[in-house]
């Protein structure tokens, strides 16, 4: 059964100029169409920013706003603002979906940037390493990271495919948020964003309890036949942060330094859960993120138990979203 189109979607007669009266309902609809959880998401963003500021101060870290690496983010932010507030004033039929999408994408990007940035001061304020314990759990589960790495290092095809699917962590949310914007599923988009935020917070909290340099640095001590996507940043960056030798965080060159839990795993589970509700894309999203999961131990230099923890993080985030009455409206 087809639903009645909203008032702002009424077709303007061909050959006539779009009057202000036809544009105004579109702006009103855009303001009213925000989901009930939007204030909670923005409140969480502001709280996260405040906590990040405190952590950065304690770790003696700053973000230099004039660094060249920040310019793409400034440009993207300006473009998002223009799309969000200027497009609805036009009569273009794709204006409202793009306006909503620009809002979703901007919030999602800010959460991602704050989460990645927060991993630096969190790492700086930790001590010791959990690699021996994480590796012991892998051994108990019968997982041999070195053998898997050797397999990938010996097959360039696995390297190429693994790199592509590992990087798809940036692609799937674009597809999901665009589908939500195009289908006017605004509550669904904000619930997905809120779940991603929760997973980010939980990951950082657990990372503070079990910092690690990862299996590549911990287990591999020979010549390097293949450098994975995540390389070996933890081994050099975490000690430098703890010694307060790093003072500037460059947003344009953020490095993945969280080993456990695996955030790629948490993201993959969240993406699959969200994509499952889109029949036309369900199996594409499942397949792509299953590939990302398979690539994570080597490309992300993760212990298998990191991925178990990452899946648990996603499960907790999804459970909290499902049981919180203000987030399930």
UniProtKB/TrEMBL annotation:
Keywords attached to this entry: Membrane, Plasmid, Transmembrane, Transmembrane helix
Residue ranges of the TM segments: 41-61, 73-92, 104-123, 157-180, 192-213, 304-323
One GO CC term on file: membrane
Domain (Inositolphosphotransferase Aur1/Ipt1) ranges: 134-319
Protein name: Phosphatase
Domain of life: Bacteria
Tagged with keyword Manganese: no
């Amino acid at each position: 059964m087809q639903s009645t189109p909203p008032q702002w979607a009424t077709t303007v007669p061909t050959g006539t100029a779009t009057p202000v009266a036809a544009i105004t309902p579109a702006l009103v609809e855009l303001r009213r169409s925000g989901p009930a959880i939007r204030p909670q998401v923005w409140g969480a963003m502001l709280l996260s920013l405040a906590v990040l500021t405190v952590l950065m101060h304690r770790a003696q870290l700053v973000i230099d706003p004039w660094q060249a690496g920040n310019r793409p983010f400034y440009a993207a932010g300006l473009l998002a603002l223009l799309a969000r507030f200027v497009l609805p004033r036009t009569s273009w039929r794709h204006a409202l979906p793009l306006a909503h999408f620009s809002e979703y994408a901007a919030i999602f990007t800010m959460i991602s940037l704050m989460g990645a940035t927060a991993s630096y001061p969190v790492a700086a304020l930790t001590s010791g390493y959990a690699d021996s314990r994480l590796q012991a759990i892998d051994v108990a589960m019968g997982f041999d990271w070195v053998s898997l790495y050797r397999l990938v290092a010996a097959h360039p095809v696995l390297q190429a495919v693994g790199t592509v699917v590992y990087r798809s962590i940036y692609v799937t949310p674009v597809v999901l948020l665009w589908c939500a914007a195009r289908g006017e599923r605004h509550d669904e988009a904000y619930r997905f964003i809120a779940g991603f935020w929760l997973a980010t917070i939980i990951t950082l909290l657990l990372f503070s309890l079990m910092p690690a340099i990862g299996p590549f640095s911990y287990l591999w001590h020979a010549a390097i036949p293949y450098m994975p996507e995540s390389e070996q940043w933890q081994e050099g960056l975490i000690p430098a942060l703890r010694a307060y030798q790093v003072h500037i965080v460059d947003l344009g060159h953020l490095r993945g330094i969280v080993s456990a839990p695996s955030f790629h795993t948490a993201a993959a589970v969240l993406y699959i859960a969200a994509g499952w509700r889109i029949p036309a894309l369900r199996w594409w999203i499942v397949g792509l993120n299953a590939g990302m999961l398979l690539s994570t131990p080597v490309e992300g230099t993760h212990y298998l138990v990191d991925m178990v923890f990452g899946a648990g993080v996603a499960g907790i985030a999804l459970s909290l979203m499902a049981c919180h009455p203000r987030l399930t409206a």
